[in-house]
Amino acid sequence: MKELVTRLITAVIVCGLLYGSGLAMVNVASADENQTSSQQVSANPSPAGIADLWRAARMGAEGTTSSQSPFHGALINQYPAERLVYRSDYLAPAIMLSVFGMILVFAAFVAVNGPSRLEKGFSGVEIKRWSRFDVWLHWIGAIPCLILILTGLTLLGGRYFIEPWLGEAAWAGLVGFSKEAHDIMAIPFIVGWFLMTILWMKNQFLASYDFKWFLVVGGYLNFGPFKGKHPDAGFANAGEKLWFWTFAIAGGLIVASGIIMLFPNWVEPSRSLSLLAVLVHGACAVLIAAFTVVHIFMATVMSEGGMECMVSGYCDENWAKQHHNVWYDDLAREQKLEYRS
């Protein structure tokens, strides 16, 4: 009997302990559920709370983080979200059009109009137009510029127009090479842009006869009332001056924005400035690319004898008289013509 009572008491005590443990577990679970519910409420505030949060962020409120990078406290970007699509929806097709579109336009023009021939043919007498340093400077700027256009075209628009034709593996190799080449060629381009802008500026200011040059399209048209018209031009004609100032201004913006992107640790740009640099860089590249195509066509196909100027530094005397008569007459009057021996 005594043993039975002892077993009953032990069973009651064990049941009591189990019941108490069960209550405790239920209370803990309930507390955890309440805490989780509270966190969910905090993580999903009311619409008014969300509005207040974003309003504070846009007014410059900063958070805390262990990051030591520049602008680490900035919670969000301040620029409108639609700017993100400018690069893909506008600049990418624009640079493709500026290169390949202009090539097609000029190819068609040359096919219909033909090149601008020397009316009196080559004289066989050559006069100095550019110094050897100027010729080297031209190519120091021109070769990197061409490589930058091709690699920039790949980086800006290749994802949309080239990758679908190559596939992922080939595209990865091409874009990797383009990125490295673009960064390397940026340095000689900056040097060439700076020196050409400073040293060649003196001959690039507009004169009164330059407006007449535009009216007859430089005398390059071989039909109608424009045929045989050779407007006055100084050392640089009006078209070359337009190209120079486009290169100087747009090229300067390309250099400035490129430095921001190439040396972010040195410049430490904000997120908004970084995006602005990307957009400015792409927009100016579109302009430079289009003018470069025009410049190449005008110097090679369109102007008979024009390419020789940037190969040897000398030009045929008849070419100088026909395309840059004001410059030639000034040198002749001042007896400063230098003939090639």
From TrEMBL:
Transmembrane segments: 90-114, 135-162, 182-201, 242-263, 275-298
Pfam families referenced in this protein's UniProt entry, alphabetically: Ni_hydr_CYTB
Domain Cytochrome b561 bacterial/Ni-hydrogenase per the UniProt entry, residue ranges: 129-305
Membrane topology: Multi-pass membrane protein
SUPFAM superfamilies referenced in this protein's UniProt entry, alphabetically: Transmembrane di-heme cytochromes
Signal sequence coordinates: none
Any single GO CC term annotated in Swiss-Prot or TrEMBL for this entry: plasma membrane
Subcellular location: Cell membrane
Cofactor(s) this protein requires: heme
GO biological process: anaerobic respiration; formate oxidation; respiratory electron transport chain
An example molecular function term from Gene Ontology annotations: formate dehydrogenase (NAD+) activity
Keywords: Cell membrane, Electron transport, Heme, Iron, Membrane, Metal-binding, Transmembrane, Transmembrane helix, Transport
Family: Belongs to the formate dehydrogenase gamma subunit family.
PANTHER family noted in UniProt: FORMATE DEHYDROGENASE GAMMA SUBUNIT, FORMATE DEHYDROGENASE, NITRATE-INDUCIBLE, CYTOCHROME B556 FDN SUBUNIT
Entry protein name: Formate dehydrogenase subunit gamma
Species of origin: Paraferrimonas haliotis
